[in-house]
Specification:
Strand content: 25-35%
Shape: globular
Order of helices and strands: EHEHHEEEHEEEHEEEHEEEEHHEHE
Strand order of the largest sheet: 3-9-2-1-12-16-17-15
Number of helices: 9
Radius of gyration: 20 Å
Low-confidence stretches: none
Oligomer: single chain
Distance between the termini: 21 Å
Helix content: 25-40%
């Protein structure tokens, strides 16, 4: 049996503009291909912060200038970002695998993720998105039930980041992974939706990619979770003059560091929390390292590696 792993790719793997993304993914997929070459069965998820913001701004600016068109809600913008990021990733990975003589299908699954309508995060939005608005435009957004925040030059919309519950397409993802296909799913945290009877309604929110990576790993019964980012290791004491890199630690140690406030919110903290959740739900190992060091992390030679207290060395 091949080792089943879920890999999350951060902003560094995607760049910011369309040309940057095309170049960045060509490099990022080399590390994913290394894991596949080592024998792993891989599912991939990725960030979309820059991309979904660009789409949201473009669609709404277009609607402002053309009265016969409407702006796009966040759920639609998330779906668009999944499509074009997946397009670049799957083509780049397919090319890299073929160059290595590895013949594995690569597919992107448009993925919806349910969120709890009573999640407290929905009432405390934190993610800034979209263009700078005038006071009148901001008031119009608030009348529609959206949240805005003052910024330099005006106002911008802010949206919530609720926790993921279930992945609607998980059965399809499971079938593809079990068939040996490389699956790209849950991009940008997935498209947040709320269940209203038999209908799924898009939510004006985003989901942290690390949390959906953990949820997908849990539902797929993956052996390991890899969060590939811009740094080789997590550190404690991020806000001090003497930060300390972390190598192999247990989930209990990770929880203690979380309680001590050792990790920066919004960057490393969600990764450590995702690692803890994964191990506590039965995962064998979670690895946080840089994209370039993915293979070394897989082999246990670098990165922050989090395991259960009784895990074998």
């Amino acid at each position: 049996m091949k080792k089943k792993i879920v890999v999350t790719l951060g902003h560094k793997a995607l760049g910011r503009t369309l040309p940057e993304q095309a170049a960045a993914v060509r490099e990022a997929v080399k590390s994913v291909a290394d894991l596949i070459a080592e024998g792993a069965n891989v599912a991939i998820t990725h960030s979309n912060g820059t991309q979904v913001g660009m789409i949201h701004t473009a669609m709404n600016e277009f609607a402002l200038k053309h009265s016969d068109y409407t702006g796009a809600p966040m759920s639609v913008c998330s779906a668009m970002s999944q499509g074009y990021i997946g397009y670049d990733l799957q083509n780049a990975l397919r090319t890299e695998l073929l160059r290595r003589g590895i013949y594995r299908p690569v597919v992107t699954v448009l993925t919806q993720v349910t969120v709890d309508p009573y999640d407290e995060a929905l009432y405390k939005p934190t993610k800034v998105i979209g263009r700078v608005m005038t006071k009148e435009e901001a008031e119009a957004e608030e009348q529609k039930g959206n949240y805005v925040t003052p910024v330099e030059g005006g106002y911008r919309r802010i949206i919530a980041a609720p926790k993921p519950k279930d992945i609607i397409e998980i059965e399809s993802i499971q079938l593809l992974v079990d068939a040996g296909q490389i699956v790209i799913a849950g991009g940008g945290g997935g498209i947040p939706v709320m269940e209203q009877g038999e209908v799924l309604r898009g939510a004006g929110a985003v989901i942290e990619k690390d949390l959906i990576g953990e949820r997908m790993a849990e539902l797929l019964h993956a052996d390991e979770l890899y969060m590939l980012t811009s740094v080789e290791q997590a550190e404690i004491g991020y806000n001090t003059a003497d930060p300390k890199p972390l190598g192999k630690i247990t989930v209990d140690e990770a929880k203690r560091y979380i309680d001590e406030g050792q990790f920066e919110p919004g960057t490393m903290l969600p990764k450590i929390e995702a690692a803890v959740n994964f191990i506590e739900k039965g995962g064998k190992r979670a690895v946080i390292t840089s994209i370039e060091k993915a293979r070394e992390g897989y082999l246990g030679r670098c990165g922050t590696i989090i395991t259960a207290p009784d895990a074998e060395e």
